[in-house]
Design brief:
alpha/beta; 6-stranded parallel beta sheet; 9 helices
Amino acid sequence: MQSIQGGRVRWEVLSTAAIGVKKVIPGMQKGEWSEVTAIASRDLRKAEAVARELGIAKAYGSYEEILSDPQIEAIYNPLPNQLHVPWSIKAAEAGKHVLCEKPLSLTVAEARALLAVQGRTGVKIGEAFMVRTHPQWLRARELVQSGRIGPLRAIVGFFSYFNVDPANIRNIAECGGGALMDVGCYPVTTSRFMFGEEPSRVFGLVERDPAMKVDRLTSAILDFSFGQSTFTCSTQLVPYQRMHFLGTKGRIEIEIPLNAPNDRPCRIFIDDGRDIFGSGITSEAFPTCDQYSIQGDIFSKAVREGGDVPVSLGDAVKNMAVIEAIFRSAESGRWETP
């Protein structure tokens, strides 16, 4: 294993949220630059149970207690959306670097408040869009930038799952639930990533659950200077995800773009456009990897060596600006500017 000056970055996890326990912590534990040394919950017994299960050294019964631990260098924040900014601010003010689960905030104003805190404290803060560092996405962008499909003109995305449990945090409006915040944020960030710029205007359509009031079906158009991105996301449709990138000469499709598996290779398909039957399609496979390991290690390496985190706080502010504009457009019925 690579020798790391200063050792692995010592992480703690703020809460026993499922995304952390099932995906992020196991991923980070496989990394070369990260060490998960503590976990906190408002229920100490729950924290202790998770710590035993995952082999974490320390368990705390409050978030305040864990932030006062001088041995902790960085926190991963997977709390419910409405708690992302308040606890990320507290962590930053305690001198901890922060990797915050997406969406980083509920509003642009909230995200900018965190940006001000970062400027004052000097800690690193990033948004946990793990897809942005997965090899399949880096390769897809490389192919686009190389001109393999001609100039990129259109992106088409879809991301959905089915969940009608009113007690689920994703179905509670005041907690920042709904399709756009939970899964629509992915085609927003990846569209910006692939076009390499910000959309000048956006248009959105939203259909809300009549009882829970969260958006259960949302579609959007993002207008970039070189083309357009369109996507649909839903919390009440068959589970499905795909991202397509279409140029003047070809097309790229990412088979499992967002929940990339960590137990099998991933694939992208490159179509040279010779016919509509797919005879010009070739594929590239990527060795099995864990996108949470990669995300954690790049962030930790940035802490140790002073580089950039995978998805910066400034980028998170811009992503939230697009999300806000989509919601405004759905209300106004007009194009809106992020």
